[in-house]
Specification:
By secondary structure, the chain is α/β, with parallel strands linked by helices. The chain has 7 helices and 15 strands. The chain has 2 domains: 207 residues, P-loop containing nucleotide triphosphate hydrolases (Rossmann fold); 55 residues, no CATH class.
Length: 316
């Protein structure tokens, strides 16, 4: 009777040309990571956020989730890699990102909102050239700086050479359903993420859903997150979600929850720093077959604190 060892060797020899090591599983190790730039958070995560995976940062407003994401993008852009920020509610402040150290020349900022073909941004600018006695056609691509907000009419002085008037849309802007507006923005954001992930070339990508109510973010199909995870693994892109509640479910490799922990003040009125707390809610044991990766030990605690000092702290 043939032993199990001999039978296994015979099967592997016959399948060696098509399936190398068919019955010998490759040892699995953890994914490589990219540091976030915050030592306590990196120690909590065992090195940083995983590469080619989805990481979700959950928290309320002013809980430090955006600061954590900007600190992570700082590390990526300093490596001369291109990043993307998909802004659903147009809440990113470029000056704050630059103050955190993000290289804006390597950041693609996508501000979600419908274009003129979609008809919501219907506040057009009409430029009348009074010196020529005629009118200039409306320039394509002109729209309001903030979506779905009425823009007041600009009344220039009589001595102005060119007169600019903003013509608001005839229909009532406030009568639009807010849920319909959010769904249109979410649809554009998901399509943008899908396009950029399949295009490749991005070291990291942030999908900012922090301004979207949880009842809308939680209705994003799980198939979308699964497709994003597959594309991130293929293009080696780190996708970071900023949400109020965890919505990626099992597709997220790491889920962090941020919260406000206190503040520092110089004297009684000058704010000098903020303290935040980070809790590791979930760590999915997705492992890649990378022989050069080093297994990391799990942290002793699932909490970490960090501080964000203001730029003017210590100045008089």
């Amino acid at each position: 009777m043939v032993s199990a060892v001999a039978l296994r060797a015979q099967i592997e020899a016959s399948l060696a040309q098509r399936i190398p090591a068919a019955l010998s599983p490759v040892p699995r190790v953890q994914r490589p990571t990219v540091p976030t730039g915050i030592p306590t958070v990196d120690a909590l995560l065992g090195g940083g956020l995983p590469i080619a995976a989805i990481s979700e940062i959950v928290g309320a407003e002013c809980s430090g989730r955006t600061s954590l994401a900007l600190s992570f993008l700082t590390q990526i852009t300093q490596q001369e890699r291109v990043c993307a920020w998909i802004d659903v509610t147009d809440s990113l402040e470029p000056k704050s990102a630059a103050a955190c150290g993000v290289d804006l020349t390597r950041l693609l900022w996508v501000r979600c909102g419908e274009t003129l073909q979609g008809r919501p941004r219907k506040c057009m600018a009409r430029i009348d050239a009074t010196t020529h006695g005629g009118s200039v056609p409306e320039p394509p691509g002109t729209f309001t700086p903030r979506c779905y907000e009425p823009v007041p009419k600009i009344r220039p002085s009589r001595s102005a050479i060119h007169r600019v008037e903003l013509l608001p849309e005839k229909r009532n802007v406030s009568a639009q359903k807010p849920g319909k507006t959010i769904w249109k923005r979410l649809e554009q954001a998901l399509r943008t993420v899908d396009l950029l992930l399949h295009t490749g070339g991005f070291g990291a990508m942030v999908l900012d859903l922090g301004g979207v109510a949880p009842e809308y973010a939680l209705r994003v199909p799980l198939a979308s997150w699964f497709r994003f995870r597959q594309a991130a693994e293929r293009t080696q892109t780190t996708l970071v979600l900023l949400t109020q509640r965890a919505c990626a479910k099992s597709c997220a490799s790491v889920v962090l929850q941020t919260s406000y922990a206190g503040r520092d003040a110089d004297g009684k009125t000058l704010l000098s720093g903020l303290h935040f707390q980070v809790e590791l809610l979930h760590r999915h044991k997705i492992e890649s077959f990378l022989p050069d990766a080093i297994p990391r030990k799990s942290p002793a605690s699932d909490h970490a604190t960090w501080s964000n000092r203001m730029a003017w702290a210590g100045r008089r």
